Amino acid sequence: MKELSLRHVLPRAFAPPATSQVWGEDIVFTRGKTCLVEAASGAGKSSLCGYLYGYRRDYDGVIAFDGTDIRKLGVRSWGDVRRHSIAMMFQGLRLFPELTALENVQIKNNLTHHKTPSQIATLFESLGVADKAHARVDRLSFGQQQRVAFIRLLCQPADFLLLDEPVSHLDDTNAAVMGRILFDETRASGAGVIVTSIGKHLDLPYERRLAL
Amino acid sequence: MRLLWKLLRRHVSALQLAGFWLTNLVGVTIVLLAVQLYSDVRPVLEAPDSFMANDYLVLSKEVHAGQQSAAFSADEIDDLSAQPFTVDLGEFTAARYSIMGGLSMMGYGMSTYLFLEAVPDRFLDVPAQDMRSAHASTPGDAVWGFKPGDRRVPIILPRNYLNLYNFGFASTQGLPQMSEQAVQAFPLTLDVTGNGRHERFQGRVVAFSNRLNTILVPESFIEWSNATFADRGATGPSRVIIEVRNTGDEALLSYLRAREYRVEGDGDTGQADYVLRIATGVVSGIGGLITAMSIFVLMLSILLLLQKNTRKLQDLLLLGYTPARVSRPYQLLTLGLNVAVFVCAVPLVLWARKTYLPFMTLIGGDGNHTPAGIGTMLTVGVAMVLTVTLVNAIVIRRQVRRLW
User: Fold this and answer.
1) Which residues contact A199 (CB under 8 A, 6 or more apart)?
2) Domain boundaries along the sequence of chain B
3) What is the pLDDT of residues B85-95, one digit of tens each?
4) Assign residue B201 a region: left if phi > 0, alpha if psi is -120 to 50, beta otherwise?
5) Chain A contact for B136, CB < 8 A?
6) What is the ipTM of this complex?
């Protein structure tokens, strides 16, 4: 997938701010480019992520992957997209509380076999959660959980990485580590990055900034 | 798969599953036992030497006092064979001359008047090897059949004649009882008189029939001997045998009622088979109902499980899991349960069978029939497991897709 485009997309659930550079506009996200979508709370940040990742459809206008309207994608195609093309880190994380931190990562990696166990161990190490790998994820702080969800995000081949407020609960040091890892990963894979933020930004050399 | 199961087994209630397992076990055991019982009892009722097996009826006319003849006319026979329920029709041909049957043994002799009848060979249901054994002493002789010049005439006796002698006559009069083999070894003499001629034949009982109430000889013998000895003109047959597809056919029954034809041996095989069918039908119906209800309960508890795990299932789908893959743990769970039920039901059925098999001789008469195998029961059981599991799998898959 090379392009992720929005044509006159408007959310049905709420009226977007008139100053928005995304809602109602024609936008194209290109593979290999890094983009920051800044928004005030309630501007529809998570709705946008939901539309792009296919679990919400309450919008007007057209969202297309390489020109194909995503409303035409079936269950099977969405499964393929979520295993091979778009990786997402949810604002609510969507980790499984009854599994350990490591198991939460494995449940994704078992599907894609994208990372080796040692690569995963290194990521846990780098992000300072190696000692929590075998703890149930609901015993972890939200900041630690964000780092686990970030590792899970990286466990798949992707053309685009979608991060919904990835550093909201991280200290600056850990946020910087996360930014560096993401930068290295995407430079190697050539993937595009779309990060949303309501204040604290993931530290990346953004090529484009959009106000939602 | 291990992680998936760890995640999805949440809210699985062991008590609910055990409840399903037990009720389904009861239901499936009843169904399979009914199937097994039916396949065990059927061959006894449809014994190979039963002349009046399920699909054959011997018909005669109602006899009224002072009536000249109760024979079927040619028109009546044509009409009967033209009926849609009639597959085949054969006439009983009686000997129209006098026959004196004699038996001499150890110097004692006795004789009695006899009557002989014949039916077309294709209506004959006595296994050929049974007849051959009786003729072992004279190899080369045709077992069943007669051609002019032969001195030997094969005979088939009704088994109940022998029973009447053994259990009614011999036991009360202090006479020895006789086995079938002994009777088949007796040299009988048949003195045939008529048309101013007299001839003596060697009779030999070659087989016994369970259902045929007449002394049967080959049709070729009756034809030849009637032509040679008959001193009375031919009348129509007083009895006919018809082959029908279904003895319970309403058209057949109303036809017989309207013409006052009597069915010989009625209420024997046909009705027993009918009662057996109804009984096993009712029993397997009840078993089926219990099974269906337990499956329904299983479906409900699995759907409830899916409901409780909705959020997890949705998250898995968001991670890129396919509905098929997410459904699989639940589908395997139902498969496991259904197989567990089947595996436990089979020994129960076999145990029950072991207790009822000894009683089979009571309804089976001579007890020579080997009961059917357990193949049919196992096939039905496997088919049930597969069908139920398939239905479960489809319902689960559809429910998971609905979460999409």
Assistant:
1) none
2) 2-48+271-402, 54-91+237-265, 93-236
3) 888 888 888 88
4) beta
5) no
6) 0.94
Phi, psi (degrees; rounded to nearest 5) at A67: 90, -10
The pTM of this model reads 0.65
Least CB–CB distance from B320: residue in A55, A83, A106: A83
Q: What is the mean pLDDT of residues B317-334?
A: 92
User: Residue B100 is encoded by which pair of tokens?
Assistant: 């004196």
Which of A80, A98, A107, A109 should one mutate to test binding to chain B, selecting the residue with the greatest count of B CBs within 10 A? Answer: A107
What average pLDDT does chain B have?
81
Q: Can you give the pLDDT at residue B136?
A: 46
With contact defined as beta carbons under 8 Å apart, do A56 and A50 qualify? yes
For B232-256, the pLDDT digits (tens) are 777 788 888 888 877 767 788 888 8
* Amino acid type, B169: F
Q: State which residue of chain A sits closest to B312, comparing Cα positions.
A: A96
**Chain A within 8 Å of B271 (Cβ-Cβ)?**
no
Which pLDDT value is given to residue A40?
81
In whole angstroms, give the CA distance from residue A11 to residue A14.
Answer: 6
Integer Cα distance of B40 and B55 in angstroms: 19
B 281-340 → A contacts, CB under 8 A: 312, 314-323
B54-91+237-265 in CATH: which number?
3.30.70
Residue A111 to residue B318, Cβ atoms within 8 A: no
So what's the pLDDT on residue B52? Answer: 37
Residue ranges covered by each domain of chain A: 3-211
- B204 versus A148: which is more confidently predicted? A148
Query: Cβ contacts of residue A12 below 8 Å, gap of 6+?
Result: A58, A59, A60
Across the interface, of B10, B317, B319, the residue whose CB is closest to A107 is B319
- At residue B156, what are phi and psi to the nearest 5 degrees? -115, 125
From A110's Cα to the closest Cα of chain B, the distance in A is 9
Chains A and B form CB pairs within 8 A to the count of 48
| B135 has pLDDT over 80 | no
Interface membership of A85 toward B (CB under 8 Å):
no
Q: What is the mean pLDDT of residues B219-230?
A: 88
> Does any CB of chain A come closer than 8 Å to the CB of residue B2?
no
Over chain A, what is the mean pLDDT? 93
pLDDT at B107: 67
> What CATH architecture is A3-211?
3-Layer(aba) Sandwich (3.40)
Q: Which residues of A touch B401 (CB under 8 A)?
A: 75
Please give, rounded to a whole number of angstroms, the shortest distance from the CA of B325 to a CA of chain A: 10
B46 pLDDT exceeds 80?
A: no
- Comparing alpha-carbon positions, the chain A residue that sits nearest to B318 is A82
Angle of CA points B113, B118, B119, to nearest 5°: 155
